Each structure stands twice: as structure tokens, then as C-alpha cells.
Amino acid sequence: MSFPILHKRVILITGLGLLILQLSGIGSDIESHSEDAKHTINLENLADNQNPVKEALENSELVADTSSTAIQVKSISTTDKVGAGDSLAKIFTRNGYSAKDLHQISATKLGKQLKNIFPGNSITFESTNGQLTKFTYHSSRLESLEFIREDTDFSAAKNIAHPDRVISYKHATIDDSLFLSSQRAGLPDKLTMRLAQIFQWDIDFVLDIRPGDQFFVLYEELYLDGEYIGTGEILAADFINQQNTYSAVTFTNTTGNTDFYTPKGISMRKAFLRAPVEFSRISSSFNLRRRHPLHKTIRPHRGIDYAAPTGTPILAAGDGRIKTASRTNSNGRYIVIQHGEQFVTKYLHLSKFGKNIKSGRKVRQGQIIGYVGSTGWATGPHLHYEFLVNGTHKNPRTVKLPKAEPVAKRELATFRAATRQYALLLNSYKDQITLVTAQ
Ligand SMILES: [Zn+2]
């Protein structure tokens, strides 16, 4: 089977700037860097074989000071990288800066965040006439901590760079697996996984995919200073599965929740995941007249046992609030989540709880709440999962799952305005493809 011509187009998103900002979720402003126009290197204080000189020459932008001021200011900027087993003390010494400078920087309000520095991250020292004026730790591509000398002390600030978000587009026809076809179309695996997640309620990606199925996806590419640094979010996608077209668009509501909806504003999601864990097999089904494997008596099995290796993440089946996160002899470590008034889900025999999981905490669907284990009365690692409707146990495999909340009526106009542009873009790409393939 021949592979269709792929179109990769990039469009600047100026017209969608407001929307993108809303999606990005990054609130703080960019702090502008006031660059000193002139940098010179103070060679007198540095021996020939000292690293900083080499570093400075390699990494720094050095401009000879041609100003006519009487006192010549010598500024130097050097960049270093955190190595394996490195400490800030070592890095300061290596670059010729004092323990006193480091002490003062560590004592600032952001100093604590320097306790964990990671190999590969870069560090910049700026100094004037041998005195450290600015220390920068680049904690990620987008985030840095800056410490600037103010008289006798240092001030601290966190800088968050905002990448340019550019809308990109991919189309693929599936001729073997979803992942292989996506890779050939140039879509990163991360986004393919996301795509499968968005459509998981309508399409079973293990059983339903057929050769000839297609998808069209509009997503963000992130650029920092013109350099591609990765992909952002999927904005809209159409998936054609066995001649049925499913469409999804993203929308962030006024409370800040981002979700995927049909173009009419109906949620793509059901309110609950069918299985809150990736399982290898069902080791025990829902059965109200089961003989208990340990006690050899008739004991109802009010849930499903999903066998999975110890440590497999367990996800909150739906949005809700943790009612209990505790331990008993029989349940082992277990979690109970209340979802609105009607629904309760239970998760038993966990090896450990997820980060920040305790009673009273709100959780969102798909959030990791714990990990598979065999604590309590369990014969091997598995998740015992229960689903209750109005206090009655239901079979989690067959219970009819309600749809997640649609876009609120009062937000429908905003939703339409925000998502129309995505639909238009996606359709214009699809038209182009139809034209090309028709030739
Ligand atoms: Zn069980």
C-alpha cells in the first residue's frame, strides 16, 4: 500500500495569540534582560591555563570596550555546566568565585531551590572587575533562577521564558500500526499517545483500528529564540475509524480546566475510565457468589481484580475527592474516591500512595493516585477495583458510564468562538489533501 503525500505546514499563530496564551497556562510575565552593551574580558586576573578564560572565549559574547569613559569597566561572562557529582561549591571554586558569594546567594529567598542541581544544566557567572555581579542557574530550557548583586547582598528572581507557539499539522493514513504510521507522518510518539487518549472513549485502539483509517491533527510546536524545543498540546483532531469520523477540539473553561470536546461542546470523555490501571489480565471477575481463594468460603467478589506488576500506576477513574487513603489488614493500602453524590470508586492492595494523595484532596480523572501492590489479603500483585452507584456495587466492566460534563451553557458562545478557528484550519488542510490525492 502506498503512503499518501504528507503535508507539513507551519502557520504563525499571531491571530490566535490570545487563545494560545490561555492554553499555555503560564501566568507570569517575561522579565526582560537588560544586557550591558559592552563586555570585555579582564585578562590580568586570570592565568593562561585557567578554565574560565577558555570557557569565556568559547561561550561568551565578548565585545571590546571602545567607550571613551575614563575608568574602563571590565566585564566577563562565563558559562559552565553541572557535571555528575558536581556541587555548587565545586562549581564556584572551579570558576574562581568565593564561598562567601555562594553563601549569600544560598541565603536568598530562592537559594533553597539551588539545593538540587542537575547534571547537564548550565550556569552563567557575570562579573565586573573580578566581582560577581550576576549568577544564573538554568533549571530547564524555559526556567532560570537569577541572583543579582545589590550593594552587599544578592536579590533573587525566577525567569520563565515563553516559547513561541506555532500551529503545526499532520495527516496519516494507517497501514500497519497507529504508532508506526504516525512516526512515518512525523508525529512524535508523545502526541500519538495523546491522540489515542483523546479518542479512547469512541475507538478501541487495540481492536478497532483498520488499514485505511486516517487522522488529521492540529498541534503546537514550541520554539525558543527560533530554535525548536518540542511539541505542545493537541488543539484539534479528526480521526476516521472504519468510515466513522470523530472530531475533537480543546477548550479551557473559566475555571481553568482544559478538556476535549466535540465541535458541539459535548465532552469526549466519559466521567469514568473503564479500567483505572493498565492490566495484563483480569485475575478475578465481579461475582457476588465467589468462593474466596484464601478463606475457601462463599464470599462475594464486589470488584474486579486487575493483575499487573507491582509498581504499575493506578489512575483516578474520574474527577472527585479522596474520601479515604488508609490501610487495613484485609484491604492493605487502599483509596476510596467520592465522585459527586452518586458515585464511589475503591482501589485496594496498593504498594504505595501517589504523591500528595490523602483524604480530602481533589483528584482529576487519569491522575496517578497510587501503585499496584499486594498489601493486605492478596495472593499476588493486583488492583482490586470497585464501582458503586448510590451505595450499590456494580460490575465495573459492564456498568453504563455517564458522559463527563459538557461545556457549560453560559460558556458555549466563548467555546464556539475559541474553537471555530481550529476547525477552519483543520478543514483547510483536509481540503488541500483531497485536492492533491485527487490529481
Ligand atoms: Zn479482589
What does the secondary structure layout of this molecule look like, with pairings?
Layout: E1 10-11, H1 17-24, H2 51-59, E2 75-81, H3 88-94, H4 99-106, E3 122-128, E4 131-138, E5 143-150, E6 153-160, E7 164-173, H5 178-185, H6 189-198, E8 214-224, E9 227-241, E10 244-252, E11 258-261, E12 281-284, E13 304-307, E14 313-315, E15 320-328, E16 332-339, E17 343-350, E18 352-353, E19 362-363, E20 368-371, E21 382-389, E22 392-394, H7 412-438
Antiparallel strand pairs: 1-7, 2-3, 3-4, 4-5, 5-6, 7-8, 8-9, 9-10, 10-11, 12-13, 13-21, 14-20, 15-16, 15-19, 16-17, 17-21, 18-20, 21-22
The structure holds zinc ion.
Write a concise synopsis of the structure shown.
By secondary structure, this protein is of the alpha+beta class.
The mean pLDDT is 83
Strand content: 25-35%
Number of helices: 7
Query: Roughly what percent helix?
Result: 10-25%
What is the SS-derived class?
A: alpha+beta
The oligomerization state is single chain
The main β sheet shows up as:
8 strands, antiparallel
Number of strands: 22
Q: In the CATH scheme, what's the topology name of the largest domain?
A: Nuclear Transport Factor 2, Chain: A
Structural domains: how many: 3
Q: If you compute it from the alpha carbons, what radius of gyration comes out, rounded to the nearest whole angstrom?
A: 28 Å
Name the poorly predicted regions. 1-66
Q: Any ligands, ions or cofactors bound here, and which?
A: zinc ion
Task: Determine and state the CATH class of the largest domain.
Answer: Alpha Beta
Order of helices and strands: EHHEHHEEEEEHHEEEEEEEEEEEEEEEH
Overall morphology: globular
CATH architecture of the largest domain: Roll
